[in-house]
Amino acid sequence: MAVADRLQSQARASPRRVTAVISLVGYALVFGTFGGVFPFPSISNETVIVLSDAIAVVNTAALSAIVAGVYFIRTDQVRRHRGAMLTAFALIVLFLAMYLLKVGGGFEKSILVEGPVYYAYLAMLAVHILLSAVSVPVVVHAVVLGLSHSPSELRGTAHARVGRVAVAAWGLSLFLGIVTYVMLNHVYGWVPRGEAALLVAVVGPTLRR
């Protein structure tokens, strides 16, 4: 209890500093995973596919929680708004854990499509990734303020302003992530990216949807 109170006190006193620390940890985990710095257990192709589907479900649930949270705050249901947004944040943490395991222990996918659709897919994927990266400190800052202040105290902070930016960036990123997932896994098909592409010759149809 004392530890929790001390953390809340630090968050109240220096919300930007706490936001920066948490955000940097998140960035370090992602870049460290892509750079091969952190060791991950090797996972099977089937597990990669299951994780891809599970990530899409989690992201859809997170987007639904965000939409619900926006509705609750607009109808002055503060307690439900708080619960919805914390649920969305918890789901994103779960997403991050599954995504890092999929990338670190498995492989990434490349879509099997050409022409305008391919470039549209790349554009949506690029915006999704960019917004995912940009929204991290904004989302974390909104959550830090929300957890360290009472509803009445939040009116004197940047929580509402930061929250609107977080919802826009985070929500669009999730939406585009879901769209690109459907295109990749259920419309056009895929092959493993990079060195993992060698697996196609071995496992072939088992990797297709």
TrEMBL record:
InterPro entries: DUF420. Pfam families: DUF420. Coiled coil: none annotated. It comes from the Archaea. Keywords: Membrane, Transmembrane, Transmembrane helix. The chain crosses the membrane at residues 21-43, 49-72, 84-101, 121-144, 165-184. This is DUF420 domain-containing protein. It comes from Haloarcula onubensis.
